[in-house]
Structure formats: C-alpha cells, structure tokens
User: What shape does this take?
Amino acid sequence: MFAARSLTRIYGDGTAEVHALAGIDLELHAGELIVLLGASGSGKSTLLNQLGGLDQPTSGTLHYLGEDLGACDEAALTRFRRTAVGFVFQSYNLIPSLTARENVALITEICADPMRPEEALALVGLGDRMDHFPAQLSGGEQQRVAIARAIAKRPAVLLCDEPTGALDLRTGMTVLEAIERINRELGTLTVIITHNAVIAGMADRVLTLSDGRIVGVRANPERAAVRSLAW
Assistant: This one.
C-alpha cells in the first residue's frame, strides 16, 4: 500500500537543520499490523505524519497505491486523509458536549460509505456506553471512542501515535485489544508508534528507528495476543 524510497524530511536550514527523516526505504502492505519503535526524536512521529498526509517530504518519494503523495496539492491530501486514513493520538480529542455516539457521528456525516456510529462503537466494546458523555467515561473508554471515530469511515489505514501513552497498564491492554480487533476483522493496515518494546510482540513486523533512519526490521513468526505479552 505504501512504498517509500529515500524519504527525507528536513526542518530548518543552515546550522539549525534537523534531519527528522534521513533516507527511509520501506514498504507497508494491506492488513499488516506494524509497530514503530524508537526513542524520542528518532523520527517515528515524522514518519507517521508522512504516511497520513499531514506533512510532505523534503526529498525522496512516498507512494500510496501508486500515487505520489509528495506531488499532491493540499486539496488532494485532504481527500486522502478524509477517505483513506484514520488517526488515533495519545490525546483523545473528543468534544465534551457530545455523547460517544455523537462524537463518532461527526466523522460518519462527511464520509461516503461509513459505518453506523453504533456499529463502530460495538467493535471497540462500547455498545452499552454510546450515550455517555466523555466526562462519564474512563480514559480507556474515551480512547476507544476515539478509535471508533477513526475507523467509522472504514479507512484502509489506521495510524496510532502512542495510543496507550496516557493510560495505565490494564486500560492500555484493553485499548490495544480494540486496535488488534480492528486490524484483524476489517483488514486495516495498522501502524502503531510506541516506545514500549513489549508491544512489539503483537505486530506482524517491527521497525526500529534511530536518528531518522530505520535501523532494524523484525518479522514476528506469529502475532502474540495482547494479554500474553510479558508486561
């Protein structure tokens, strides 16, 4: 689905130049669950922003289903984000005055072939909480609403930036199980950023980044269940 060749992103200029990505080559395939590992500043979030069409490369190429994202104008990138990509961030970004169902419906109203909000919330185990407001939900439940909102448009790609970073261990496992279920049942290419190496066991492949480069690629012989990981 994605093919990157010599993908580079530089911020600043002169002595202030920062090479956030320094020549990335990768391929990502439909249905995969990918974990991106690396310390802060390794380039994980910059790479995720490239994949999601939130930023464009300084040099090199990034193709999605054969289309060069680096050559797209802002209108084309907006269409790409709207139709193909779901985002999940560490912060839930829910609207406090709307129920879980209404937060998800915000997305379904602008998509061509969305799930019903009730269907998306059921997929993340919140079928009985859909009429609750964010303040009435735990952190893990709010994050699962955010996941439901992201997948309600049936995206081909789900990008998750530290989705469990603000959660305790038990709640984080529940959120990861929801993400794994979406990947398995919908066949969504799923990319998870984390600094927690334990999570790598649930992936098909693990890409390790350092200083803007991929320094390690590991394929797991089989994906481990979230609850079986050595937390």
The longest helix spans residues 169-186. The domain at 2-228 is CATH 3.40.50.300 (Rossmann fold).
